[in-house]
């Protein structure tokens, strides 16, 4: 069974990484979210993007009542009756064999239990074993609080806070549908199918007496779409998806989902489940104040009868590829890499899992599986390869070639123009008890999905519909991180447009033609694309970010450079390269004061002192802003450079007061929304700052999320904030919202 599932899986599973996701949707304490009386979709018309990804919150809630819940997907018999007996959906899920198989792997991973495949490859490793002693302060003179300790475990008392596996078993947890994805472009790597359909779900937790909050853990359930389909079959599928936008959810259900996924009235069996979850978030009180989080990406192949760990496409396992062999594979597949559709051999050199590191995206060496092995000189010294590169559209130089390869891996894609390592975040469901502001997303998808993937996939379906793509499609996948640049109507047209604010741009050398739009300048924020030859950085950053030439609110204020923290000895299994610490992330060096935010003295904030909120306060790359004036909460300002809104932001070290009762080991019992404003510990733990406004067409820059804040007149507004200021995007949320006891063990 597992073997057959592997054979049906597309070699690349296009879009696998960018669709693992999260959302802000959840349910009331004794409500599974599956009540047919809920889910009013009258008046809902699906947007143009629905031909590729459907995220409308009312549609998701309604589809759960129509047989598309996570429990329907797992095939749990009579689960609605069992819900009435248990009161919580999650307890019922432990009956599902596939779910239990996944839960066992996650538990082993988080407890440091090593599991190997029959041929000796790692399925899990021991990176989260609690090796450092608990309670030892890292900083000389630091208070002996648990969140200063270099220790590993679930809960705020640890320095490295891991996902709590008990949440998967909790009676206070549920799983909600947050998106439907059309993966028809899987046909580009498997012409015997019409790709797949993915149902994307997110785990949520609802402790007694508290609002339900989403957790950074998603399940993506994969279904074959017209398996063995001919070109005419796929043309018919494309036509039906293209007909979805502008129609009601009932149309989507009748013309696409039921015919493809539930032809006999019940959801048919899947062929795989993928997971993406934040496995660890580092305490901000450790010696490096920058946020550091790790995400695990896994593929499970199988059916409801059981699943087993599968191989991640385009993810070379560490230490398995000889540099010469990988270099030759790249040369043999240069044209496919240019198109964005290569496939590594499905052999022992593929990884069973990937770890994605946040923040600072591709500037982190651990997000560069190909860049960790290949050298630019491997291609630059080959005249024939250089001649072929000159004829490509997306990989014209060795530098761009290696970046393209890394962006096609799961871990690379997860950190490129994403939101906290996710590409789909879902939408907030209305009319329930969850916080609608402060811990809610305003935009549920990333710039990568909105501005790059959606247009490309839509254009491919139109090409299928017209017959142009009957035997293939020679249009490259957009360059990840370029946010729609060089793409017109979903098709790559070299040099067609210039980058908008927030997009990646070229500072020099091989990336110099990545230019910003008029009025914008390309600045170094993270030291991205510094030359990395033979384990040593050499030279300046070559890729930056487009920002306003006259500094505005939300622009970077404190550029950084990232260097790996290496172990003192080499690892022979990695062919002599030094290995990095698993937990401590990278060493971030800050250039304080090089971006003074002086331009804020003009425009709507003239006369207010410009402020640079620094990395150490949790703002990656720093952020230019000004203080709000009294009574400005929720007010929107607009000038020629954009729109801005006044919103509440947590202050530095708020965890000391709002996770713990200050100066003790006792967990804080004051609700987080009260603690942030009521002066715990003798000071308020939040303040009002002017933030960059955002919506679906105006994206935040890298490492920021478009959060929902309360605007004027009861309306909500999007504001760009660091992602880990939203507790739904981190595993170490407030103790009252994570089922923690009132006193630390």
Structural notes for this entry:
Helix content is 20%, strand content 22%. By secondary structure, the chain is an alpha+beta fold. The strands form 9 sheets. Strands 1, 4, 5, 6, 7, 8, 9, 10, 11 and 12 form a 10-stranded mixed beta sheet that branches. A hairpin with a 5-residue loop joins strand 29 and strand 30. The two termini are 45 Å apart.
Mean pLDDT: 81
- The outline comes out as globular
The percent of residues in helical segments reads: 10-25%
Identify low-pLDDT runs.
1-34, 132-148, 567-582
Beta-strand percentage range: 15-25%
- Which structural category do the helix and sheet elements fall into? alpha+beta
Element layout with pairings:
Blueprint (H helix, E strand, L loop, with lengths): L1 H7 L7 H4 L33 E2 L2 H12 L1 H5 L4 H8 L2 H5 L3 H15 L3 E2 L5 E3 L27 E2 L6 E3 L10 E11 L12 E10 L7 E12 L6 H12 L6 H13 L10 E11 L10 E11 L2 E4 L13 H10 L1 H6 L13 E6 L18 H4 L2 H7 L8 H10 L2 H5 L32 H20 L20 E2 L2 E2 L11 E3 L13 E9 L2 E3 L2 E3 L4 E6 L11 E5 L1 E5 L7 E3 L5 E5 L20 E3 L9 E3 L10 E4 L2 E9 L3 H5 L13 H4 L10 E9 L10 E6 L5 E6 L24
Parallel strand pairs: 4-5
Antiparallel strand pairs: 1-6, 2-3, 5-9, 6-7, 7-8, 8-9, 9-10, 10-11, 10-12, 13-14, 15-19, 16-19, 17-18, 20-23, 21-22, 24-25, 26-27, 27-28, 28-30, 29-30
